[in-house]
Amino acid sequence: MTSTPLPLIDLSRFRDPGADRAAFLAELRHAAHEVGFFYVVGHGVPGALTTGIHEVAKKFFALPLEHRLAIENINSPQFRGYTRTGHEYTGGKQDWREQIDIGPERAALPVTEGAPAWQRLIGPNQWPEALPELRETVLAWQDEALRVSREVLRALAVALGQDEGYFDAWFDEEASTHVKIVRYPGRDDTEQGVGAHKDYGYLALLQQDDIGGLQVQAQDGGWIDATPIPGSFVFNIGEMLEIATQGYLTATRHRVISPPAGVERFSIPFFLGPRLDAVVEPLTLPAGLAGQARGVSEEKDNPLHAQFGANALVGWLRSHPKVAERWWADVTA
Ligand SMILES: O=C(O)CCC(=O)C(=O)O
Ligand SMILES: [Fe+2]
Asked: Which interval of the chain is the signal sequence (predicted)?
């Protein structure tokens, strides 16, 4: 275990005419290239909203199991809704967390012959009737998480020598957003809260409480604690940015160690990806950076797909075998 702290980026410096923009961009580029994980402050998200979603998350997981199961994800071909503790798998091993998955609210498309399988990821969410305030709080938080992540992505585009709007072309109305509301119950027997993995979109933003447990893999293979910093979000690079930059940025592996027995941890990750139909192309890096691109990682158990819908679908199928078995047997076969 290493205790090197992750870099901290003050995002307000990106638009501040009084700030040293070149220094800001160099720091951001360094954080994203060297570590792939960094804290973001100066994001402008009201404290009332971050506190509000934490409170509503606590209320949801305190509901009787039958109310949580009323929105179980097994009802949803789109993997939306509630996952019970122990029903999610990472690296082939059971994770120890319960969660709600929420995506863009859309009607499911009619299934047509020859349509790509990932189209079936488009569809409605499941919201708990027993806790109506969850929906409005999550939607308000999701708007802010989207705003902040797109701002980070614009700053990254500039730091990579592109126009600020470079990535905007990959969004339109179909921007892929995904919110998870997670509770890690404490345990002492094994440590996997969520196993080591990479995130598959462009960027992930994480709101975590003050318990800790998130760890980031350093380039030397050691694990760095992403110790909670109040008022910050933790950001990390996903696989689509690794593909877009040919490994100048890499999707960094991370995991969560379960809190000890009797302690619970809440976290709210938000994933920003391109449109499901986007095929992410390599961007042209400035000469000074291109030489530092490490190439796209080739792992037997996790081949990366430039077609985002396919990449996302593989991730869902791997994590939720019960939903896969019920709704996706034709694809997994
Ligand atoms: O809960 C956390 O701290 C991280 C969760 C995570 O990495 C994920 O859900 O992809
Ligand atoms: Fe993750």
From this structure: none
pTM for this prediction: 0.95
Q: Which helix (H) or strand (E) holds 38?
A: strand 37-41
Atom from ligand 1 closest to the CA of residue 184: 1
- Residue 144 CA to residue 132 CA, distance in Å, equals 20
How many angstroms separate the CA atoms of 265 and 187, rounded?
11
Interface ipTM above 0.95:
yes
- Paired residues of 40 in beta bridges: 9, 233
- Tell me the C-alpha distance between 149 and 145, whole Å: 6
Q: What is d(CA 180, CA 194) in angstroms, rounded to the nearest whole number?
A: 13
- The one-letter amino acid code at 297 reads S
Which of 53, 237, 254 is the pocket-test mutation for ligand 1 (most atoms within 8 Å of CB)?
Answer: 254
The greatest distance separating any two alpha carbons of the chain, rounded to the nearest whole angstrom, comes to 58
Ligand 1 pocket by C-beta < 6 Å: which residues? 180, 182, 194, 199, 206, 208, 214, 254, 256, 267, 269
CATH number corresponding to 8-332: 2.60.120.330
